[in-house]
Amino acid sequence: MSSILTCVGFGNGAIDLGGLLICQIKNLTEQSSLPDGFFVLGNYSQSNTNFPSGILFAGKDVTNDPSRVILKSPIDYILVTSPANDQEGGAYIWQPLPPENYTAIGNVATGSSDKPPLDDIRCVLSDFVEIIQEGGNISPHIPTGTFLARGNESTISSFMYLKNVAGNISSMPNISQLDDLIKKYSPVIYFHPDEEFFPSPVSFFFENGGLLYTKGQESNPVPIDPTGSNLPQGGSDDELYWLDMPIDDAARGKVKTGSLETAGAYIHAKPTLGATCTDLAIWIFYPYNGPARAKVEFFNINFRHIGQHVGDWEHVTLRISNLNGELESVYFAQHAKGVWLNANEIEYQSGTKPVVYSSYHGHAAYPFQGINLIGNGNIGIRNDAAKGDRFMDTGVNYSIVSADYLSPPIVEPTWLNYTRKWGPTITSDFADDLSKFTKFLPGKLKRKFMDMFNKLPKEVMGQEGPTGPKWKASWDGDENV
């Protein structure tokens, strides 16, 4: 790493938080790898069974203001935990004691009972620190890669993050850099060998008979303009309007199948983690979500109606470091929730493109092939992921539909600001669909299955069209895990 870092521009190695310059450390074990004037804020920690996959930030005070020093050494250390009976090779964990008005971001680990040198780390002026309770929204703030430990079986319920006090977004990628990132890291989505319902462009749905319904005028639906220009704008999901398939059976069948050959990805770029990273949410539109399947021990159930709905929006999110332009992690959205995996934990194609498996009928995103059950034990809704012959490289045909931080900002398509549902509420009877299959189950298994089924979130079982991407909680906040 160069000893001279700039703090302006994407991929330039550092970002200025308002007098506190931070950079990412590559060598997590050698203090000598620090650029000139930088100090770590604590040590890094993870399981010793995995390859190092996290990040560690170091900071430098660039204010040159003696009346407002941003980084100071701790005044002492307290031993938090030590190896039993001072076992050789164990770790001693130390909590730094910060000066008044400063915060210790992380702990320090040593291999002996000797206190670490006070000059090993720095505490941070508390103005630059945000304390977040476990489960809180961390997206505006910066995790430093340090760790906290507590002794005497006490628990940790809050964590320290850095704040981008200056609101500096100069490290965010420009439009040209966004294109480069998308082409380099665009996921390749593989579909199940038996999949029947594929993605399409939004315009395919509109141009092939998609209809706009108005409450109270259900007998007189209106064709949707190819650009969505006649979709209602503003308001909320008040059930006054909804979209649906064409009425004609042949046209309906065509739209259900989708158009994989012309399908594209719709990309939302936004700053996250205090603008140290860019999230690229890659949204895919499926005109139709097929009926669900279930597994009850050794029984497999193919439902006829449960789970089906018109209009299916799915996404994968790439988290890219603004300091070095590297992919850090990938979020795989799976109905109501999802999972983040580090970049070194996933499968790739062509070297840099994450592989995603779209589940059969439900189109949830999975990092690996297999039967993924939503439920308890061997009882649940199946999300089968397998590598068929058909796939979609999301970097071949894409459009950036929103990036508010750009100046001028991206002009959003009209359909993105349609706030209502992309499909009707289907009123088929759950009980009828269930009874045809559960009547063959032994009593104990039937009770277990129904208990699991009744606890499933509505997103899993579908039967009503979703709202569009912009109205998901993750659009402006964290992904749900």
Short description:
The protein has 481 residues and is mainly β. It has six helices and 30 strands.
Report on this structure.
With 481 residues, the protein is mainly β. Helix content is 11%, strand content 31%. The chain contains 6 helices and 30 strands. The strands form 8 sheets. It has a 6-stranded mixed sheet with strand order 23-22-21-18-17-30. It is globular, with a radius of gyration of 26 Å. The model is unreliable at 1-5 (pLDDT under 50). It comes from Lithospermum erythrorhizon. It holds the Pfam family Vps62. InterPro entries: Vps62 (IPR009291). Residues 461-481 are annotated as: Disordered.
List keywords for this structure.
single chain, 481 residues, mainly beta, 2 domains, six-stranded mixed sheet, five-stranded mixed sheet, Vacuolar protein sorting-associated protein 62, Vps62
Radius of gyration: 26 Å
Distance between the termini: 34 Å
What amount of the residues lies in strands? 25-35%
Helix content: 10-25%
Q: What is the number of independent domains?
A: 2
Number of helical regions = 6
How many extended strands? Answer: 30
**Weakly predicted, low-confidence segments:** 1-5
Question: Strand order within the widest sheet?
Answer: 23-22-21-18-17-30
The gross shape turns out to be globular
Helical/strand content category:
mainly beta
Instruction: Give the overall pLDDT as a whole number.
Output: 90
Largest sheet: 6 strands, mixed
